[in-house]
Amino acid sequence: MKGSAALPVFGTRLRRVRTAVRLKQDGLAELLGVDQATVSRWERGVQTPEADLQAKVFQTLLPYRSDDAALRRLVETSPECVHLVDEATHVCLAYSAVRARDWQVGQRDMLGISLWQFATEEIQKAEHELGASDWWSVVSPEPRLFETSQANYRDISISAGQILWERVYLSDGTPARLVSGRSHAA
């Protein structure tokens, strides 16, 4: 996430991930060198840290997470155009060969990279709209379907088409997002 824009609804994302990995606010505060009240303010949305500190917060939580090799393998071998991201950070966890061709990248090039920096205007808008919905407050929110435009970046290309977001959970309880898409060119 280094150098990328701050994520919308940071506090709610943080709370969901922190509780999923069963880490108390004061434990996270100690790891980050801040006080528990600061973590509480972040989670309530009273205070929002800069993007680089947001990245550090989620990086700090990584060692508490599980591997989920089976889920990654299912995504990677899917015949569909799909990818899996960490819901809080948009870090790419896995993607299919079809998605790799769509993005015009190698099968492992984008792993571990936050895809938020490549979000089209439509993806950013859809992400912001999640904050006004029940997406962050319910365990299994309704899938979200929307259209996105084409975008070309130095590292990745995004095809215009439909995007479907579905929440899944990693084995440690951390929410992830399965992203399916169908290009208008397909």
From TrEMBL:
Pfam families: HTH_31. Signal peptide: none annotated. GO terms for molecular function: DNA binding. SUPFAM superfamilies: lambda repressor-like DNA-binding domains. InterPro entries: Cro/C1-type_HTH (IPR001387), Lambda_DNA-bd_dom_sf (IPR010982). CDD domains: HTH_XRE (cd00093). Residues 14-65 form the HTH cro/C1-type domain. It comes from the Bacteria. This is Helix-turn-helix protein. It comes from Roseobacter litoralis (strain ATCC 49566 / DSM 6996 / JCM 21268 / NBRC 15278 / OCh 149).
